[in-house]
Design brief:
The protein is an all-alpha fold and about 280 residues long. It has a domain of about 100 residues: Tetratricopeptide repeat domain (Serine Threonine Protein Phosphatase 5, Tetratricopeptide repeat, Alpha Horseshoe), CATH 1.25.40.10. Helices cover about 80% and strands about 0% of the residues. Helix 6 runs antiparallel to helix 7, helix 10 runs antiparallel to helix 12 and helix 13 packs antiparallel against helix 14. The radius of gyration is 19 Å and the shape is globular. About 40% of the residues are buried. This is Tetratricopeptide repeat protein.
């Protein structure tokens, strides 16, 4: 057996755990994959692990660690000389980098990364990744605001809708969830623009996102949907529905172990196993 094979198996397991929001198991699988990458000197495996860890720590909002791993992945990709492989991974890294930079508030850098990712996705014909980049760009414009972004909320909303159509046609269910989550967040924050003074659309989008996330077992997205629904119900003075949503969010917090416990083991470099929340 190729000595690199167990590393890719651990990587696949880590990505599966990430999809189910099983974060501690995910970290342990990434650690095992990284051990194999270090032992075999497999840079392509190390690159994919760094992208996965960047995505993981972005979800956990540990943006310093996320950016360390994603920038390390960018450094590794410079040694890849096969054009189509280079473009594929650079595009993926830049997409994840745009998300992490936006969450950190570095909106200009986020837009630059996203613009390049969009171009690469278009050049390589990767429609699903192009759609995710469109969603990321809409998120960036939403946070820039209409005046600075020089783009109306209506146009940003059209980006979400187009991204959703592409991902649905591609049967990329996780991609659908990501876009719906952004649409739900946008509608929840901008109800006066999208629906007059009514919370109906925001609630419907959150419920739609919640249904798909539940079917996929994606607990982190479910948690975010329940949290937004609780706030929306609070604004409607619907105390019963608010309490149900808050209980559901609290239960998911426990299931995902999103709280500080004992110190964890650490990956070789950079160090990542500290308090996760």
């Amino acid at each position: 057996m190729d000595p690199r094979t167990p590393g890719y198996a651990h990587l696949a397991i880590a990505c599966a755990h990430l999809g189910f929001s099983q974060f501690q198991n995910c970290l342990e699988a990434f650690e095992q994959a990284m051990n194999v990458a270090n032992e075999t000197g497999d840079k392509l495996l190390e690159l994919q692990i760094c992208v996965g860890l960047g995505s993981l720590f972005t979800l956990l909002r540990d943006l310093s660690k996320a950016l360390i791993f994603l920038r390390n992945a960018l450094a590794i990709i410079q040694s890849v000389t096969v054009d189509d492989v280079h473009a594929k991974y650079r595009c993926t890294i830049l997409y994840h980098l745009s998300v992490a930079l936006r969450m950190r508030g570095s909106l200009v850098e986020a837009k630059e990364a996203c613009d390049e990712a969009l171009q690469l996705a278009s050049e390589t014909g990767n429609r699903a990744l192009h759609a995710r980049c469109m969603c990321s760009l809409a998120d960036i414009y939403r946070e820039l605001g209409e005046s600075e972004a020089k783009e109306t909320l209506t146009k940003s909303w059209a980006r979400y809708e187009e991204a959703y159509r592409v991902l649905r046609a591609s049967q990329d269910r996780m991609g659908e969830v990501l876009v719906l989550a952004s649409m739900a967040k946008s509608a929840s924050e901008s109800r006066s623009h999208y629906t007059g003074q009514c919370e109906c659309q925001a609630i419907q989008l959150n419920k739609k996102c919640l249904d798909i996330a539940r079917s996929l077992g994606c607990k982190h997205v479910m948690f975010k949907c329940h949290s937004r629904l609780a706030e929306l119900y609070s604004q409607l003075n619907d105390e019963d529905s608010e309490e149900v949503a808050r209980r559901a969010a609290s239960q998911l917090t426990q299931e995902m172990e999103l709280f500080c416990t004992e110190s964890r083991r650490e990956l070789t470099s950079p160090e990542v196993f500290t308090c996760l929340s």
